[in-house]
Amino acid sequence: MRAGNLDCVTLPDLPAFPVSRPRRLRRTPALRRLVSDVALRPADFVLPMFVREGITAPVAIASMPGVVQHSQESLVKAAAEAVDAGVGGLMLFGVPEAKDAQGSGADDPDGVLNVALRRLHSELGDATVLMADLCLDEFTDHGHCGVLAADGSVDNDATLARYAAMGLAQAETGAHLLGTSGMMDGQVAAVRAALDHAGHVDTGILGYAPKYASGFYGPFREAVNSSLVGDRKSYQQDHARTVSDALAEVALDVAEGADIVMVKPALPYLDVLRAVADAAPVPVAAYQISGEYAMVEAAAERGWLDRERIILETLTSIKRAGASIVLTYWAVEAAILTS
Ligand code: PBG
User: Fold this and answer.
1) How far is the CA of 216 from the centre of ligand 1 (A)?
2) Whose CA is closest to atom 8 on ligand 1?
3) Is 253 in the pocket of ligand 1 (CB under 6 A)?
4) 220 ligand 1 Cβ < 6 A
5) Residue of 49, 112, 135 best suited for mutating to test ligand 1, as the one with most atoms within 8 Å of CB
6) Alpha helices of 174-226 — where are they, by DSSP H?
7) Could you confirm whether 77 is annotated as catalytic?
């Protein structure tokens, strides 16, 4: 409120201008640094990597510029570089040469993913956190995350047996965390029971819950040479539900033994991430997925966005919303930028 008498200059208790000035703390880089709340650390970032059977040199993924399908050899080298850059972990996806209805390559010890995990574990030991995607979609000829019933629907309980077998094969390789990403009901319990029964009590489970049926997975389909026709809406979550659906999924995963839960995708679901981070009694991760990566790379390529700035802004937003771990295809670059 202004002083009533404008001629009077002796009314310091009635200022003509705002007293509270948030801009004071934004004035210099040092002031901004002093009051910033969200910090990015290299160890926050996990690098998803693709390993493809039957190739001798990396193959580019057109819709994910800068990301490749690795050969076993190039994978080992790139993984070591990522670990040297300080990333917190690696998440491995396999791209097999042959696929079948059961996804047999998934639990075959000689399958592309298990071979890669074993090799990475022998090269890197406990120097990083080695994670494995535990899902059938890369290995099935129909491209679904589970096996199919006679009517063509995804058979939940028959799939659980396949996940248990896949989880055992992955645990045998020395992988530290298994990422149950298939969205079958009871998948964490089934894998946990199989692991414990076989003595793999220290192998952890990263539960993908909540995981939404999202168009942002588009480029990933190219990355794993997916043969999927249709969509995953009968098992992945509907983005039009409120966060209660997400919290129910998280509660189930935690009750079934998940050691970490992960929200996926990340940027379009920050409200869900916040709610999960507030409720979950375990660490919370978020997956900045292929489509989130692709849209920034595409816009940056055209000069429409400042790439590096956007990378850091999106990662900071994901952490601010409550993730303590972020899976991102920019993990190595982000680790270098923040170290
Ligand atoms: C399932 C899985 C998918 C992704 C991670 N795990 C594909 C899907 O659910 O359709 C997508 C990751 C990305 O888009 O970057 N194996």
Assistant:
1) 9
2) 217
3) no
4) yes
5) 135
6) 187-197, 218-223
7) no
173 close to ligand 1 (CB < 6 Angstrom): no
Ligand 1 centroid, distance to 23 Cα (angstroms): 42
Q: What 8-state DSSP symbol labels residue 28?
A: S
The one-digit pLDDT tens for each residue of the chain (339 residues) are: 444 555 556 666 777 788 889 999 999 999 999 999 999 999 999 999 999 999 999 999 999 999 999 999 999 999 999 999 999 999 999 999 999 999 999 999 999 999 999 999 999 999 999 999 999 999 999 999 999 999 999 999 999 999 999 999 999 999 999 999 999 999 999 999 999 999 999 999 999 989 999 999 999 999 999 989 899 999 999 999 999 999 999 999 999 999 999 999 999 999 999 999 999 999 999 999 999 999 999 999 999 999 999 999 999 999 999 999 999 999 999 999 999
* Close Cβ partners of 2 (under 8 Å, ≥ 6 residues apart): 14, 16
pTM for this structure?
0.94
What is the Cα–Cα distance from 49 to 78, expressed in whole angstroms? 9
- C-alpha distance from residue 300 to each of 21, 222, 223, 290, 306 (Å): 35, 21, 20, 15, 6
Please choose from 68, 137, 267 the residue to mutate so as to test ligand 1's pocket, defined by most ligand atoms within 8 A of CB.
Answer: 137
Residue 264 annotated to the active site? yes
- Regarding the beta carbon of 128 and ligand 1, being less than 6 Å apart is answered no
CA of 135 to the centre of ligand 1 (A): 9
Q: How many CB atoms lie within 10 A of CB 21?
A: 10
All domains of the chain, ordered by start, with CATH? 39-338 (3.20.20.70)
Dihedral sign of CA atoms 286, 243, 144, 63 in order = negative
